[in-house]
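Subject: design request, 78 residues
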């Protein structure tokens, strides 16, 4: 493995990791497949986006709570 790694200009550890991941993807070892990892990353991004959107809605609700007159649509005069 070391000779191949040197020839490719990468670390020997990279080859072992790739081999291990290939075994997981083939179902020979337990672990998260490459496709599963891609899906988890995409879902994590989606969760962060939804949490940001929810925070915006919550902040807007705080700002508007009790400050808008439903009849006139503007803030009451002082």
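Subject: RE: design request

Done. Sequence follows.
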């Amino acid at each position: 493995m070391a000779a191949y790694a040197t020839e490719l200009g990468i670390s020997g550890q990279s080859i072992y990791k790739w081999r291990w991941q290939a075994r997981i993807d083939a179902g020979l070892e337990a672990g998260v497949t490459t496709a599963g990892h891609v899906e988890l990353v995409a879902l994590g991004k989606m969760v962060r986006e939804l949490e940001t959107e929810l925070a915006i809605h919550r902040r807007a609700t705080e700002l508007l709570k009790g400050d808008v007159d439903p009849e006139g649509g503007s803030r009451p005069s002082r």
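The chain has a mean pLDDT of 88.
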